[in-house]
Amino acid sequence: MADKQGSALDWLLEPVTEAQPCGPDLEAEGNDAFIDYYYEAEARLPERYFTPGMAGVEGSMDRMFDPKSINLREETQAITALLRQSRDLRLLSLLARFQILAGRAGEFADSLQAMAAILAKWPDAAHPQVATSVSDRRAALDELGSIKTVVMPLQYLPMAGLADVTYRRFLVATGQVPARPSEEGAERGPLISALSQPTQEKQVEKLHRDLGRAARALAAIVDASASNATARFRPSLDETLQTLTGMQQLLHEARPNLTLWSDEAAGPTVAAAEPQVDAAGADAPADAGQPIAILGAAPVAVAMTQAAGAIADRAGVRAALEGAERYLAQHEPSSPALLLVTQARLLIGRPLIEALETLLPADAAKAVIGFAPETGFAVSMDRMKKLSESALGGFDQAAPQPESDPVAALALTSRAEVAAQLRAVEDFYAAKEPASPIPILLSRARGFMDKGFQAIVAELLPKVEPKA
């Protein structure tokens, strides 16, 4: 399971019982301990890793998720108790997210390796089982590609214990992502120099090993899922793989003696990390029965041209969202995902002002586009409305230029197909219109799709603390 070393999770490869090596599906059985813990724990995960302050508003500051807010000991104890009863990928996925949110790269890698090993040993018996709930298994694995709970924590992880040395600052320093106000002045040279210091050698080497273990495990998880004889699919883990690879490349630049995980593995090399890029899983699945090499799995090749998935324009966006909306309305009308998909469809092609008034009704009027404090310049919400009307109105009279012929709504037949289409729309906007709020709505919708009523209520209604 671990790269030629022991792991605290090795016991997970021992069968629960001879008759049921992975134990029962606690969620399907309605196990009280599982239901009470799992959905409450999912609700405790952050909605955002970084929340920017409102420009021009005095006292409004950027807010970053605090890794110390995770009580990792309690979460680990609760999850371990459930895993001793059931080899459940949902629990391990949750544990891995808590671990990286807490800044524990080594333990994060351990959990990913445990998942890869379980999939290799019990591809069909591991919970959720693909024969009965492939969408549940896919959802559990897709969460390992989450921007807010995996990719962003990795980007902001202090590298080798140095608080100011992060992969995020490297991306800013090299112009791969725009700098936020608090990130101005990031430079590549000091980052490389800090990681090159002799005093950091052991910590850098350990982090490099942990990142490599995590990347190889993720690649093995993808391979195992794509080669499953019962139901093949490819989890959307490319952004996490890209980030892990980019972090290793940064460490390699500081210490050329370190070998990249992708160079150690057979097959193509993962492309250099690009922020906010996620392929739609278009690679052909591996042959069924192909052995899965957990410790040296070939990386997944990722191309920038795959960022928008199969959707090329807004007509394709509308077809995908209408198809998702129709499926949810007919088959899952009680899901909050239906409401969010509908709202996303209504915002197609709409201006920023309308999005703010729709999604931030209590605060939209306070919105201000600010400039450097010494200029005193500001564009108020009222002025933004007039500018928006002027900008859009100036083109209303022009001859329409349709992007393409009308596209009929897609006929979707499963929750997994809906989730895949929503992800493709998110990818389209990330590449074509990153300012749109539609990806946030759809990401939230996907998060609701596999949750039960109790978990939904826990998220929708604020928890009232009992009076002393």
Helical percentage: 40-55%
Task: Report the order of strands and helices.
Answer: HEEHHHHHHHHHHHHHEEHHHH
Low-confidence stretches: 266-309, 397-401
Number of domains: 2
Please give the radius of gyration in angstroms: 23 Å
Output mean pLDDT.
81
Write down the overall geometry.
globular
Strand order of the largest sheet: 1-2
Instruction: Output the number of helix runs.
Output: 18
Overall strand count = 4
What amount of the residues lies in strands?
Answer: under 5%
* First and last CA, distance: 48 Å
The biggest beta sheet reads: 2 strands, antiparallel
The helix-and-strand class reads mainly alpha
Describe the secondary-structure layout.
Layout (H helix, E strand, L loop, with lengths): L31 H13 L5 E2 L11 E2 L7 H12 L5 H13 L3 H17 L8 H13 L4 H9 L11 H7 L14 H9 L4 H26 L11 H17 L6 H4 L49 H18 L4 H11 L5 H8 L8 E3 L7 E3 H16 L18 H18 L5 H11 L4 H8 L8
Antiparallel strand pairs: 1-2, 3-4
Helix pairs in contact: 1-2, 1-18, 2-3, 3-4, 3-5, 3-6, 4-9, 6-10, 8-10, 9-10, 12-13, 12-16, 13-17, 16-17
